[in-house]
Structures
1.
Amino acid sequence: MRPCGAITHLRRPLATLPVLLMLAAPATAAAGEAPAGATSCVVLEPRTSFLASLHGALRTAAQAGNTDIHASPGLGRAILMYQRLEGTFPLVRGAGDGPEPFPAPGAARGRHAPLWGLFDSLVYESGDEDTLRRRAARLPPTLAGGLLETGPAVALLLEALEVAAADYTAGVWLEGEPLVRQRLAWWDAELAARLPALLDAAAGTLGLAGPCPRIPVILVPVMPAPGAATFRGADGPFVVTGVDGLAGADLAEVVLHEALHALEAAGGPGVPARLQEELQRRGADPFTVRQLPHALLFVVAAQAVRDLMEPTHQPVGRSRGAYDRGLGPYLGVLEPAVGRVAAGHLTPDGLLAMLADAFAPAATPEPDPAPAPGEEAGRPADTKPAAGL
């Protein structure tokens, strides 16, 4: 076995890819100087890397329990190593155990979510082996309150990537690289010019304003459920999305949805975060606290794509089943309300109030007790003199 310090296959294919296609910000708004309420100066930077794609494939297969991708011994061994890595994670609170900060930290789900989210972010953001090693060296010696030793966990991750690299290069990547190239070319030719208007429309509906960040959007062939995620990386928020089976307006909606997560993480809170706080304050059920703000992002992104890009677009939440996972009951209020904001008939603050009232109505105050005989409401009755005086 090659030493894990020489992942040669993680370098060679990377040089052949369009690693960075930067979208120019409009001349009217330089990056970092957004006028109030405007987001068209936000720069989404599409990119890919062999390392990110390999990690996405291994995580996806490990999550599904598939250790036989194309009957490849190297990939099978690496997937088992990823499963073993997760087995070293202590059980800590995950996305299914109660309200989470908005936006969600990444693609990981379940009781291991925080630690997988950290390792996902580390690999996806690094993009190559040398950067991965440098960033991993800066992690604290232990994680999860001292329950996980970082060094052995990182070593197992790097070994798994090394074991898988050759087979992935010779097999799965032969199909994955052309797919990612196609999506990057489509982005440059079709999506780039539409993004400022899409971002302005969606962010305006959600009351998002503030800085103009550069947000990397990393395209990989596949990644674990839910298939796209926003991460808080060392250099700020970034997006990762799988592109297998996702193209055109569907891909635009997913990118826009995740960009809204990243915008809220980079700037001040908008309607989703404020709504979550208000729902929690009013004592809404934990699922609604967690999922109603997320359902709002689905609806807002789909509305913007339908209004500005593809009038017949069907929401990704509906076509790919996300609305079937408990979000359906929200749509009867969400979709018309978002449409009213897009048409200029409702403000973002009005949207927040409408949703909070619909799904967590404020408690009705107790009525004042009826006044005693001879007593005016709000004024005590006259006191009678003591007997005999």
2.
Amino acid sequence: MEFYNKLNPDFDPDKKHLPPYLGYGKLSQDSVKRTNGCIEGRYYLHDQQVYNIHWNDRCDFTSCYDEELISITTDKNLSSAFQKNWLSTCMMDSGNFLDPRMVYLAQSISKHSIYFKHPQAKVDDRVMCYFPAGKIFDLMIPVRENYLHTLDVFRCLLEDNGQVLSTLEENIISLLTMDMEGKVSVEEVRTISFSATLSRIYDAAILLESTGLLLKIKKYALFIRDAVEAMMPSLFVQYGDIGDGYQTYGILEKQLYEQCRNNVKNDFISNSRNILEQVLTLKSF
């Protein structure tokens, strides 16, 4: 497991302090109690409690959701107990998180015509965990027109909402599309990306949606994925939108596409066929 405290180089793991956010949750200030060297507090995802902390000589870390216990871990301090708890709840099914809180977030965000890629539990055989964030996500926004205006709006949004969004990066992707006849086309699309922590990912998505600048067409929709996965040089292929005339679409950074066009197209066609076969199989049941 990779565990990162270096996001805050002055972090002292043994100092009894409850951060304002932790993993899935935000701290309820009303729940914080300090008595005889012990500190207690509760964290919430929307109106659901997700963590209960009791930190005395050791830290008891209770993970829960929808009034159901998920896991209890104990360690020398909060960061160690959180790390151990994250690992214990990072159950896998084909490499995906089974944690009901991640499922809830994915469903809540997807309702807004936003694509949320369910994160892998492991990346390169490592479980990645940040403290106190848990996970950091990359929010990629394809921009087809009025790019400079859109960039200005998002820069202002970042300045006014630094507690929700962080970093702004510009890039160009190659967007591959397979139409209804199986023909593959490639389009260059400029993108603007932000990052957000796990506990703030829903707020970040809704904030970006509120600008009215997100496109509703599936292949141009806001795309949210694990920031570590976003750094991996891989082709992302997804089932398309028959109503808009394309069966599948794929996303890859332009530079990587330019380096090996033929291989990328072949991989895209192969992955598209696999996806379409899976869809047909599901429809046959």
3.
Amino acid sequence: MKPSRRTRIAMVFFFLFMANHDASSFEVAIGDKRFTAKAPPGYVEVGSSSYRTLQLFQGLLPEKLEVQGAFVSEEEAARIKVNEVPVLTRYMLIYIHKDLQGNVTQPQFNQVRESTRKQYHNMYDDYRDQVGHVLDKPAESISDYLGDDAKIKSVTVYPIGVVSDRTYAITISQLIKYEVATAGGEEPVFYVAATVNVVHVHGKVFFLSAFSYFRDEADLSWTEEISLGWVEDILHDNLSPSVFDYQGPGAQTSFTEREVAKLLGGPSKKYSSSGREKALGIDVSFLHPEGWNVMEDKDSPNVVNVVYGNMHDEAVPFVSLAVNELALRQKVRFSGEDGQNVMLESMELAVPSDAAIISKGKADVAGRKGAWVKFRHETKKEGETLRSTQALYMFHYRDKLVTLAVGVSGKARPKQVETCFDAYAAVFERIVQSVTVAN
């Protein structure tokens, strides 16, 4: 039975007619290297069997990106085989950048990751209000308007966040807005959720992306979850286990690759400071990975609680909450029109005097203007050196100064501690973004 026009999503113009298709895996060729890429469970690679199919997907990407493989569900592949119109609610692509087919060293890829992370955060700041509107109320589906004469008029990318940042891959999510013109004069708009993975294997860089027609946040979550699992499978199919066990400078251990993927794809638990004496009457809540433990800090008069994860390689991820009563002078300075700038200038006073500050900036936490600072610190305790890399997020609320710290701490080597912090960056980002104040 042919699907109705209402049930077809915006991608209905991809008529992927083909005679036969391979079901499981194929090879990605980049310069002189070849890599195995298995289809995710329940999906079939269709592009390698049909040049026309590949070119239809190619038309979605910028000119410098070249599609290597296209994946659709088994149900969609069955429709294609009998020349039915595919619905294409969800699909995945593997592609390369034409200017990145040469060898890319690990330090060079680290620079790519850093640059991507910074640009993405800057883009998110620019589009923050628009992204919130789109997530709250998706645009009307254009499936009723599309026909063979439909043309994409413009495309706008709205960044959502850095999902994961690991030694061999960085993963970012986004919404893509398509404005379409039809022969009938209609100009409908629709959105596609996308998660893009930039992957570095054996000196080559390629991209894995998952796309879903956007109806609600579950569609965005699907692209993130299937992407992380897909990247994990491809890395383990193409990298020897010894690579993950390597402990040298800039290397990432096996636990970070696996642990972060589990945490991002696993359930969360809500923490609340309600009823806790040190919270000074403020109810601050946030989501943290289920299985992390809540602990009271009896040594500090201002730290309400510390929530920490499992120790791996002598490093522990954590998030802590502190609330301080502000003096009258501080209340005036932080609550004034220039309060956020004052707070930013004061961030160096919030860290230990012997800490090494890495970076700082402005931040919005729980809908309130604040600031953040990232730093390294070492301390001696019972003859042992404990090292940490942390980021403090501070904001002013009801004459109180609220501080959320995220980071890793332990007896690991300095470089390893920083590497672990970078590995957990996506987890920490989700925690910070989930912060709310109830009263």
